[in-house]
Design a protein that fits this description.
Pfam families: ROK. By secondary structure, the protein is of the alpha/beta class. The chain has two domains: 115 residues, ATPase, nucleotide binding domain (Nucleotidyltransferase, domain 5), CATH 3.30.420; 161 residues, ATPase, nucleotide binding domain (Nucleotidyltransferase, domain 5, 2-Layer Sandwich), CATH 3.30.420.40. The chain is 34% helix and 22% strand. The chain is built from nine helices and twelve strands. The strands form three sheets. The protein has a five-stranded mixed β-sheet. Strand 5 and strand 6 form a beta hairpin. The N and C termini lie close together (10 Å). It binds zinc ion. Zinc ion (ZN) binds next to loops.
Length: 292
């Protein structure tokens, strides 16, 4: 039984947590992420050294990152903290810390924090400024041959209507990606026009009778239901957990179970749709759980 350290490397903040051999959080700290790649590596190594001095033990090291690691070259790609892209982060951290580290993206860390202790399969969805996902089967993260397992946000929106086709241009180079319809800025823009980015007030406005807010939320829920139905047709997980900023919208947990079965290729659909249990802690907890 060993201690585990989890690190959540974000664009603005870096968080570290140490879990004792029983899985309880014994230390947790959050500091600003420094600008630049070398400063980031140096700071993470220093945070690990400080944490291990405090717990008086060494630990396994798991790190949640934006983006993912190319499985052949070990170089980071697709990170919105762009100083990480093209860098051999795991190799450099292992050299700085003196032992191997494991990396996974934030959606995979959410999946591990939610499902490491559950039987069967679970899919975790992040609905925020981006849309991503992670798959855990029998407590193990499925990263996939190309390390893109779960990257459902860059499949096209399923069962597009004539109005929706071909969909908005996505930053990834494709059109009509699920992310480009379902991310927070897309929902805000659907309600309030191009340039709007904050969707957080829409549920309250809809409840107060704002028809534009209501219509945008209804379109969003219908599209999310189609996107999740297509996912169920491939993976059929026991449970789908929603995390990220938009997962706070309470109507999703009432409306999705009603809307999803229309498109599932089965005469029964009892897939549970649940909010994430660990909220803000899921990044560090899931990263720590990258080691068994
Ligand atoms: Zn895309």
């Amino acid at each position: 039984m060993t201690w585990r350290i989890g690190i959540d490397l974000g664009g603005t903040k870096t968080e570290i947590a140490a879990l004792d051999p029983g899985g309880a959080i014994r230390l947790r700290r959050r500091v600003p992420t420094p600008p630049g790649y070398e400063a980031t590596v140096t700071q993470i190594a220093a945070m690990v050294a400080g944490a291990e001095a405090e717990i008086a033990s060494t630990a396994t090291i798991g790190i949640g990152i934006p983006g993912s690691e190319n499985p052949t070259t070990g170089l980071i790609r697709g990170a919105n903290s762009t100083c990480l892209n093209g860098q051999p982060l795991a190799r450099d951290l292992a050299a700085a810390i003196g032992r191997p580290v494991r990396l996974a993206n934030d959606a995979n860390c959410l999946a591990m924090s939610e499902f490491h202790d559950r039987p069967g399969s679970g899919f975790a969805v992040i609905l925020g400024t981006g849309v991503g996902g992670g798959l855990v089967v029998e407590g193990r993260l499925v990263q996939g041959r190309n390390r893109v397992a779960g990257e459902w946000g860059h499949n096209p929106l399923p069962w597009m209507t004539a109005d929706e086709h071909p969909g908005p241009a996505c930053w990834c180079g494709q059109r009509g990606c699920i992310e480009s319809f379902l991310c927070g800025p897309a929902l805000a823009a659907d309600a309030d026009g191009p340039g709007a980015r904050d969707a957080s007030t829409l549920p309250a406005r809809a409840a107060a009778g704002d028809a534009r807010a209501r219509a945008a939320l209804d379109r969003h829920t219908d599209r999310l239901a189609r996107a999740l139905a297509a996912l169920i047709n491939v993976v059929d997980p026991e449970v789908i957990v929603l995390g990220g900023g938009l997962s706070n919208m309470a109507h999703l947990y009432e409306d999705l179970p009603r809307l999803i079965p229309r498109h599932v290729f089965s005469d029964v659909c009892t897939t549970a749709i649940e909010p994430a249990r660990h909220g803000d802690s899921s990044g560090v907890l899931g990263a720590a759980r990258l080691w068994p």
